[in-house]
Design goal:
Elements lengths: L3 H12 L5 E7 L5 H16 L4 E3 L9 H7 L13 H13 L5 E7 L4 E9 L5 E5 L8 H7 L4 E7 L1 H14 L4 H20 L6 E6 L2 E5 L1
Parallel strand pairs: 1-5, 1-6, 2-5, 6-7
Antiparallel strand pairs: 3-4, 7-8
Helix pairs in contact: 1-2, 4-5, 6-7
Amino acid sequence: MHGIEELAAAAVALVADRRRVVLGIAGAPGAGKSTLAEALLETVAARKGADWVAHVPMDGFHLADAQLDRLGSRSRKGAPDTFDADGYAALLRRLVEQPDSWVYAPGFERTLEQPIAAAMVVPPAARLVVTEGNYLLLPEERWARARAQLAEVWFVSGDDDLRRSRLVDRHVRFGKAPGEAEAWVARNDDVNAALVLATGEADRVVLNGPHGWSLSG
């Protein structure tokens, strides 16, 4: 059984003598990607210093509601085509190819459910950048361009019923009524989860289990 300390050591080892690497964390909606990313950031920062590791989640590349309305896709928010995958890939490439620059990245405000431009910044001191998102392993060209910039992709897996329960709780927490939240999970999140679970192989699988994190592969 591996804990977060072992996972952090594996993440740090990816850097080795390279100037900077980006670690991707994939998984279905509600699997625990953000929770793992935050735990890795905290643990790596404690070992290496706060500026040594940075965080750029894929959520900042959600299309704004104005664009979703234009496309007629607002009811499908969170599906692969409701993200700016090309912009995400371009940012990841900048992070790898321009490690001595301050690189700004969009964030995502969950209360508004909107992306926020330049809400995050990766400093030149960062050697490891952690990014997480549902579609890092999706076998489509535009997502493959993002995958090409990642040193490794770890896939978070766990109990499916618990994953759905987390999603319903999250939607309620950010403003949906319980029935509306359950309907959204069934209509949107479960459809997206099926896509994610059918994607390509990850470099490692991280189990989000009742006794903590375990790493296989």
